[in-house]
Design a protein that fits this description.
By secondary structure, this protein is an alpha/beta fold. It has two domains: 26-110 and 214-327, Periplasmic binding protein-like II (D-Maltodextrin-Binding Protein, domain 2), CATH 3.40.190.10; 113-211, Periplasmic binding protein-like II (D-Maltodextrin-Binding Protein, domain 2, 3-Layer(aba) Sandwich), CATH 3.40.190. It has 17 helices and ten strands. It has a five-stranded mixed β-sheet with strand order 2-1-3-10-4, with helices on both faces. The chain has a five-stranded mixed β-sheet with strand order 7-6-8-5-9. α2 (41-48) crosses α13 (252-259) and α12 (230-249) packs across α17 (321-327). The protein is globular, with a radius of gyration of 23 Å.
Amino acid sequence: MKKCTYLLFPLLLIAFLSGCSDDDELTNVKLAEVTRSIFYAPQYVALELGYFEEEGLDVELQTIPGGDNVMISLLSGASDIGLVGSETSIYVAAQGADNPIINFAQLTQTDGTFLVSREPIEDFSFDDLIGSDFLGQRVGGMPQMVGEFVLKENGIDPQEDLHLIQNIDFANIASSFVSGTGDFVQLFEPIASQFVEDGVGHIVASFGEQSGNVPYTVYMASDSYLNENEETATKFTRAIYRAQQFIQTASPEEIADIVKPYFADSDISLLVSSIDRYQAQNSYAEDPLLEEDTWEQLKAIMDEAGELPADIPYESIVNTEIAETVINE
């Protein structure tokens, strides 16, 4: 009897440990970001500080340039969650998708681009743009739409008052400006600060400060994914919310040190100055809740740009329950 008992105990122990291992396995989440940007600093904080792992998630990050490509990845199931401009979900919904893309957690709440001039300008006025060569962003994307919205708000007709250049791919805009194209360019950080440091350009205005709050970049997933993986989406949002809270109180130097592995080619001082600019204009959302008034502002900007394909109701492609659950815990 004793011999049988001694043999049985190791088997029971192995079974117990195996059971624990299964319970402790991380849930894989394939995350597609539309670009690598210091504008998404809270996301990299959540990755580096282990917030996702603490929620039981193994987040697999990949960069997929182009909002349309992120949508294709989500709709095909190649990615689970996308970080991209919320306008893309409107484009998909307007096409009558059977499995619409749902916005469930906001990351940034202002435009992230800055107006950079080739020559220094004292006491800049938007009238200084009249007659200039303006190197803008891709037609139909948030940077372009917000940029044109701000110009119009300041009395500039982009089509009439400027020579508007929009035939250059997003990835090549900065290098085109360096090579001599354009008198002004619309750029994200840290490239804008890099241009200032290198003497290539001068930051004269912030489109984020000028345009007000909009759901600029948002985490989204297909309706079917959220229905089948609500707990995973909630855990994901909880990790992002922790990072958003961290960002609100941490210094630019502390944040830059944490996210530096994602920007190996950028000098740490540039990351610090970029984060400082975004913090100063409240670009990083304080929580993941996408509110209806900012959704209406987004549609107004799209409509002004002639890019709103349909008046998609807020409640049809925005899920607030996940964010509200996390915030109220």
